[in-house]
Write a structure and sequence with these properties.
Shape: flat
Helix content: 55-70%
Number of strands: 0
Number of domains: 1
Oligomer: single chain
Largest sheet: none
């Protein structure tokens, strides 16, 4: 039976997917990017909940740490590729930076 963290993680993932789709439909890149972040955060929270439920040992916790490092690396890669932008000056503006959007 899933615990609270697993359920909250699934909800956060669903919220993220909805934000991504609304962002695509309304051409709102910031909302889309927020959805990507929410979905990733939900995956981490769900994983944490699963680990708690299964009684993870200290050695397995370090493996979870490496997973969060991979997520950080993924976000850095998306940012470097122009998919995610952290500063307001590079927000998606139709017709201005269309080449940055996949």
């Amino acid at each position: 039976m899933p615990n609270k963290d697993e359920i909250k993680g699934k909800v956060e993932q669903a919220k993220g997917k909805v934000k991504q789709e609304i962002g695509k439909a309304t051409d709102d890149q910031d909302l889309h990017d927020e959805g990507v972040a929410d979905e990733a955060a939900g995956e981490v929270q769900q994983g944490f909940g699963t680990a708690k439920r299964k009684g993870v040992t200290r050695s397995r916790i370090s493996a979870i740490g490496s997973s969060t490092e991979r997520i950080d690396s993924l976000f850095a890669g998306l940012s470097n590729a122009g998919v995610l932008r952290a500063d307001a000056d590079t927000r998606h503006r139709p017709g201005v930076n269309e080449h940055l959007v996949p």
